[in-house]
Amino acid sequence: MPRYAPNKMSTDVKRRYFELIRTGVRGARAAQEVGVSLSCGSLWFIDAGSVSYVETPISGRYLSQDDRIEIADGLARGEQVKSIAARIGKSYQSVYREIARNRKPDGRYQPWYAHNQAHVRRRRPKPRRLAADNALREAVAGKLHRGWSPAQISRWLRRRYPRRLAWQVCAETIYEAVYRGLVLHADPVNLRTGRTYRRRRGRGRSREGALKQSTNMKSIRERPAAVESRRQAGHWEGDLIMGARQRSAIATLVERKTRFTLLVRLPGDHSARSVGDALISTFAKLPARLRRTLTWDQGNEMFHHERIEQATGLRIFFADPHSPWQRGSNENTNGLLRQYLPKGTDLSRWTDDQLQEIAGELNERPRLCLNDKTPQQMMRQWRRQMTTS
Fold first, then answer.
1. CATH 3.30.420.10 location in the chain
2. Is the dihedral of CA 336, 340, 342, 346 positive or negative?
3. Residue 150 burial (CB < 10 Å; 0-12/13-18/19+)?
4. How far apart are CA 193 and CA 172, in angstroms?
């Protein structure tokens, strides 16, 4: 049997050796198959920190054994990490993290050792926290019953119990527990999304067509800088949420600084005249300092925007077509409102009092973007400042 120094053999030989080991072949047989001595194979095995599992296919988003070999070869040649990352199709942050996490205690990055360490780290023998801790499960369930989102609950646990590290769970842990039925059943009563599984996120809905009438629209690019900074109250974003078969609608208004929400009922139809009348009536009830600008989607329902401006003192601007992120606060709120106003229902059935109750509940929820204050608190704070100034 040929005897070669273990570090002189090619990478392909080592790769084949560990492939055999990970399929359950004994060390002596694997060494014989690749043409090295038992002691040479043993040195490889020891240097890799032993190989304690049989490898099975995993998701392509994880680094493979070949990826780790490419990283080790690149480091040996003195290449930059960004170049290595580009070659294997991963982000350079992922490669930096991989090297820091899975290198050997002496600082060397050995690809087979790293691959084994990643497998050991990936195994989760510990019980799920929400399954093992009854008190934590009850605390989370109580907040879910009050309409809090998993992200809000996660932040609340960190603030309320800063020294109880076992209770500091992330939002994804709470979602997983709900979907597994460990806390509550995943349904519209317990999860605001009403979903029973995780779905892939998109960039938001698109709208076909734009404002086809020839009007004097002001583009969002003409909007004052104070609107973008969110330092001044009185700048609103608006849109319609549609009911079944596009036959009913409700106008939603969100103040950019405080995230305060108003819901405007459209009992008859959602024509341009009806929307204009409803918005004029709603804004007329607000103080002048809360009537600065309004940013809307390019929909035909705002054909009377000049009439609205003249009646309310607002300056109305329009977002670009197919660009819902330019009205991000409003789009996010519309998603939250679907908990109360589900798609495919007749929105004309909701009364003004019911809509006020829904808006009130939404305005009493803590928001991460407000440092976990509520929109209602922010609006009260703004009113106090106005009375003292």
1. 220-388
2. negative
3. buried
4. 14
Distance in angstroms (rounded) separating the CA atoms of residues 264 and 282: 7
Q: Which residues contact 141 (CB under 8 A, 6 or more apart)?
A: 183, 184
Q: How far apart are CA 372 and CA 36, in angstroms?
A: 63
* Per-10-residue mean pLDDT, the chain, length 389: 55 76 74 80 72 62 84 88 89 90 86 81 72 89 87 93 90 85 65 59 39 65 91 95 91 96 92 92 94 92 91 93 91 93 92 95 94 94 85
Which token pair is 71? 């990283």
Model confidence pTM above 0.90: no
Torsion (CA) 210, 212, 215, 221 in degrees, nearest 10: 20
How many of the other CB atoms lie within 10 Å of CB of 238? 22
- Closest to 349 (Cα-Cα) out of 244, 202, 274: 244
Distance, CA of 212 to CA of 54 (rounded, Å): 63
Residue 296: the pLDDT is 94
Please tell me the CATH code under which domain 220-388 is placed: 3.30.420.10
Using DSSP bridges, classify how beta strands 235-242 and 293-296 pair: parallel, antiparallel or unpaired. Answer: parallel
Give pLDDT, residue 11: 74
Residue 18 token pair? 């560990």
Q: Counting Cβ atoms within 10 Å, is residue 258 exposed (0-12), middle (13-18) or buried (19+)? A: buried
Alpha-carbon distances, residue 217 vs 133, 297, 310, 318 (angstroms): 57, 11, 14, 7
pLDDT (0 to 100) of residue 54: 53
